[in-house]
Design a protein that fits this description.
The chain is of the alpha/beta class. It is built from 23 helices and 11 strands.
């Protein structure tokens, strides 16, 4: 029996009225009532007899090893165990026990303390993305994304509004992970205030274990009531049907270990033994086509051009302007992500080269995006882009990007419809996290018309040093011009936001396109950095 699983169903039940718990939680008279709901059962004196524990341990060891082997063979999904809770409740001992019971080669444990200097230069979720386990493996996170909001609110560094904003971000992140197929198991190890005080006294009274009670532990214990108040609010608000919190009583090691083993075993076996899940209905509905066939691409003015002499003069001016901007002292506290998308032969490579010629080679990286590697296919879709994010003072240029999911993967059927339809919201959230952290996000779509593309294709076939640029795949993609155009229109409509708008570049004239790219990039850096 599991003492408490906070579920979506429980969240939907108002307490003491018709208002939802999210609103009631901000009223002081309701907060203690939620604390009782979340932690009441875990504070009971749960015990497991020694004989029962020996039988349970043997069964769990065998069954968990079998489940872990099946997981590693099937490689259908990854499993992530998030560990939270009060100090002294047995978090470390339980994880050590799991390493004894299971094959440690397929367990990836990561502890997250205060962010390092390297981590502070990226958005807060960057360090968690990098540590996600691949499909077929089990990851364990100590002190994950829930820890900082709890401590910041309990110690009054943030208010209720900021706490709720972070809670909403956590729910979105966990929803995205579970949509990608990850099995997320969240365990909160709990002790009552009296139990924690007794536990600290026992540890401190033994010279072999006294080191385990730190000054920080005692400081947090002094604020136990406030921490419990904030914790129960976050637990309730982030416990969903797809990613519930399990509150584990931490007083009795045998009971605690047996409960965690059962939760892990049942969760793994349920997923392993079930048929692959059907497509999820939670998705952004598709946009209706324009009744007059006009799109953002068809309305671009492709007639404008730039004379060679003027182009060379303005190119030198803009490259110098960009070079000076990226060398300013204030640029050291920001970063730039520039991504280039466009039709085949639209001139992305040429535009990127004109940008990089203005930059110090030590300050930029170019990331070409092709079909995902085997390593990338066993991770959530955005994983390979999160790991490439720039540190402060750096420019990262993506030659194609995360928009492949709503473009080529959509058109070619490389992912399910539900995957690319929900990707719009996931992408907007991803870019919002970058901008919030101070990253300048600039997105370019280089557009050419069909006649210009045909001319460039034929020119590439005839020019010896350009033949590598044209493939049979390019000709095949050209046959789906209309389908791609619809996908681009939907992409711009769904993801051109006030904080990360699309820059649509008419690229029939390469010189004009390159100047526009440099000009808008300089303006974006000047405005935000």
């Amino acid at each position: 029996m599991y003492p408490l699983i906070i579920s979506e169903k429980i969240q939907s039940i108002p307490v003491g009225g018709t208002e939802p718990p999210e609103l009631l939680a901000h009223r002081p008279e309701h907060r203690r009532r939620y604390t009782v709901c979340v932690f009441e059962d875990a504070e009971l004196d749960h015990r497991l007899a020694a004989a029962q524990w020996r039988r349970e341990e043997q069964r769990l060891r065998t069954a968990l090893l079998d489940a872990q082997f099946d997981l590693s063979q099937q490689k259908r999904f990854a499993t992530l165990i998030v560990i939270g809770g009060v100090e002294g409740a047995g978090k470390g001992e339980t994880v050590n026990l799991l390493h004894e019971w299971m094959d440690p080669r397929h367990l990836i444990a990561t502890a997250f303390g205060p962010p390092t200097k390297e981590e502070r230069q990226r958005p807060p979720m960057w360090r968690f993305w990098r540590a996600l386990p691949p499909r077929g493996r089990i990851g364990i996170f100590f002190g994950a994304w829930h820890s900082a909001p709890i401590l910041d609110r309990a110690e009054n560094r943030i208010g209720d509004a900021e706490l709720d904003r972070r809670i909403a971000a956590i729910r979105a992140f966990e929803g995205m992970l579970t949509d990608e197929g990850l099995l997320l198991i969240k365990l909160w190890f709990h002790l009552s205030k009296k139990q924690q005080k007794r536990r600290f006294r026992e540890l401190s009274g033994n010279e072999r274990t006294a080191w385990r009670v730190t000054a920080r532990d005692r400081e947090l214990f002094a604020h136990y009531d406030r921490l419990a108040e904030v914790s129960q609010h976050l637990i309730r608000a982030t416990s969903t049907g797809r990613a519930p919190w399990y509150v584990v009583p931490g007083a009795d090691p045998a009971y605690r270990s047996a409960m965690v083993g059962r939760i892990l075993l049942d969760s793994l076996r349920e997923r392993l033994d079930a048929a692959p899940a059907a497509a999820r209905p939670d998705r952004t509905p598709p946009l209706p086509p324009a009744l007059d066939s006009r799109t953002v691409l068809s309305e671009l003015d492709q007639t404008r051009g730039v004379a060679k002499r003027r182009y060379e003069r303005e190119l030198e001016e803009l490259q110098g302007r960009l070079a000076r901007l990226t060398r300013r002292k204030r640029f050291r506290k920001t970063a730039v992500v520039a991504l280039f998308e466009g039709q085949d032969a639209a001139g992305k490579g040429g535009a990127i080269r004109r940008v990089t010629r203005a930059l110090d080679a030590r300050l930029y990286r170019c990331v070409p995006i092709a079909a995902p590697t085997e390593e990338e296919r066993v991770q959530p879709y955005l994983w390979r882009f999160w790991r490439q994010l720039p540190r402060w003072g750096e420019v990262v240029i993506f030659d194609r990007s995360w928009y492949g999911r709503v473009l080529v993967e959509r058109v070619e059927g490389f992912c399910a419809e539900e995957d690319w339809l929900r990707a719009y919201a996931e992408i907007n959230d991803f870019e919002a996290q970058l901008v919030e952290h101070g990253v300048v996000v600039v997105k370019y779509w280089l557009a050419i018309d069909r006649a210009e593309q045909l001319r460039r294709f034929r020119e590439r076939e005839k020019t010896p040093f350009k033949r590598f640029k044209i493939t049979a795949e390019d000709w095949r993609n050209r046959e789906q011009w209309g389908v791609y155009e619809r996908a681009v229109h939907d992409m711009v409509e769904r993801t051109s936001t006030e904080i990360a708008p699309w820059t649509l570049v008419a690229a029939n004239d390469k010189r004009a396109a390159r100047l526009e790219v440099l000009r808008t990039l300089c303006e974006a850096v000047e405005e935000r950095a």
